[in-house]
Amino acid sequence: MKRLLFWLIGALLALQSAMATAADKPVLLVFGDSLSAGYGLPADQAWPVHLGKLLAAQGKTVQVVNASVSGETTAGGLTRLPAALQQHKPRWVLIELGPNDGLRGLPLDKAKANLQAMVQLARRSGAQVHLIGMQLPPNFGPDYTKRFAAMYGEIAKAERVSLTPFLLAPVISKPEWFQNDQQHPTAPAEPLIAAMIAKDIAGLF
User: Fold this and answer.
1) How far apart are CA 153 and CA 158, in angstroms?
2) Considering 17, 44, 181, 200, which one is annotated as catalytic?
3) Which of 44, 50, 95, 198 is the most exposed place for a label (fewest CB within 10 A)?
4) To which H or E segment does residue 164 belong?
5) Using N-to-C axis directions, what is the helix angle for 47-57 and 190-200, rounded to 10°?
6) Mean pLDDT of residues grouped by 10 in the chain (205 residues)?
């Protein structure tokens, strides 16, 4: 009985120590949709988890918090962001939203305004911001898809933030790296995405 009690006390102290250590680390907040939430995958296989491991291997003291929500639009993200900033007080914010606006054919001027507002909110909170873009399938028409892809670069330039132009760039040419829906990457593809993001955000540290 005493051994069990000592073991429980030791485990509790170790947990408290780990929690305190995590709390001391500056937060990198990933704020996206299903592509960042790891849709269809175990939670520990999403690219933000791999990003955290890469940054740790590089000697960077960072706690990666994935606040991504499957199905999220830019309007929903703009509504959620203030509470996320208040809760996590991140030093860095990675914003990956817009695909669900595009897939629903929503007005791009509104999506762009929402994304720009999120960038500004995050910067006003004191965080450094990195914007992550996406592209749409060609069946949405050349004008809409071109304007959609371009809006990320336009925002990044206007707000002077760093940019990953296309989240799926490392895997888009390999159909076998996508789930049956041909939209969401498989688990083996996620580390490749994380490696690209880690390279793109290196200048923020």
Assistant:
1) 8
2) 181
3) 44
4) strand 162-164
5) 50
6) 48 42 82 98 96 97 97 98 98 98 95 98 98 93 95 98 98 95 96 98 96
